[in-house]
Specification:
382 residues, alpha/beta, Quinone Oxidoreductase, Chain A, domain 1, Rossmann fold, 2 domains, seven-stranded mixed β-sheet, six-stranded parallel β-sheet, 11 helices, 26% helix, globular
Length: 382
Amino acid sequence: MRAMVYRGPYKIGLADKPEPRIEHPNDAIVRVLRAGVCGSDLHLYHGMMPDTRIGHTFGHEIVGVVEEVGSSVQSLSPGDRVMVPFHISCGSCFFCRRGLFTNCHNVNANATAIGGIFGYSHSTGGFDGGQAERVRVPFADVGPQIIPDWLSDEDALMLTDAFATGYFGAQLGEIRELDTVVVFGAGPVGLSAARSAWFLGAGRVIVVDHLDYRLEKARTFAYAETVDIRSHRDIVVALKRMTGGLGADVVVDAVGAEADGHVLQHVMAAKLKLQGGSPVALNWSIDSARKGGRIAVIGAYGPVQSAVRIGDAMNKGLSIRANQAPVKRQWPRLLEHIRAGHVKPSELLTHRFELDDIAEAYHVFSAKLDDCIKPAVVVGEG
C-alpha cells in the first residue's frame, strides 16, 4: 500500500509499505478516507520529537471504513464508517477506567507517562499512523466510534484530535462564568479552544498570535479579541493592560514546543536535545495569568526538561493542568454542539491534498503558505 514515510527532518515522501494485518484478536484494519496533518506532526517533521525513526508513517487524525476485524471485536463490522481517536487505549487498565485514555498503561512500553499514539514516533509506541491507504487499529472495541449518518467525514476528522483537544483545553482551564480567557496560538487547536471557551461560560476570549490570517480566523471562527505579538514590545505587559493590570483568569497554551523565542532555547531544543522545545509560550502563560489563575497546557512538548518559570507559577498560586486530550471522552458533548448547529469544526480546514501530494501538504503547512490553517489528506472515498 502507499503510505507517507519519514526520511529525516524536513524530509518525507510516499513509499510502498506492506499492508497492515490483524495481529491480535482485538485489532481492526481501517481503509483511510481522510487523514489530518496536525500541528504536532510538524514537531516530528522538524525533528523536535525524540525517537522518530526513518520509515515511520505519521498521522493520528483518521477517518475511514472498517475492512476487517479480529475475532474478538464486537462493536465494529466491515463497512462501518468510523472516526479513530488519536490515542490508543486498552480500556481496562487503572488509567483507562478513570477516563485517562491517553495515559493507558498497557499500550506503550517505551514510556511511563504517555500511552500509545498513532504515527507519533516510537516514544509513543511506534504505531504507524493513518497518512496511508490503510491502518491497523488496536483495541478496536475501545477507540473507534461509528460516525453518525448526519456527520460529514471532515467534521468527524476534526473530532479525532484538533477540535476535541481544543475543547479539552477549555475544560482543563475550569472556565467559570464571565472568566477572561487568553489563548496563546491561533492554530487549529488554539482556535478550537477559543471557540469552546464560550460554550463553558467565558465572558471574554483573547487570542494571541503573530500571523494576520490566523488572527482573522480567530475573529471570524472563535469570535475572539485578538492580539498581534508583533505589535507589542512585551506581550505580557499588553495582556496585563487589557485585563485591568491583573492578568487573565484562564490561560491556554496551545502552542507548545515551537514557540518563537531566544535563539539559545532553539539551539538547546532542536540541536542539542537538552529540552523539550522552547518554553516561551508556557512562560508567557505563567506571566499572563492573574494570581490564583489557571493554566491549561495542550501544546505538545518533548519529554525532557525545559527552562520553565515554575517558581513564578508557585509564587502566584497558579493551578497548571496538562495532558494529551482523551478525545473520545469529549465526543458525546461535541456531537450535541455540532448537531445543534453551534459549531462546524470542518470550517477550520483550509486545504485538501491527495496522498500523492503529502510532501507538499507538509511544506505548505510548515511554511505557513497560502494562509494554511489546517490541511486534510484525501486518501479514499467512502
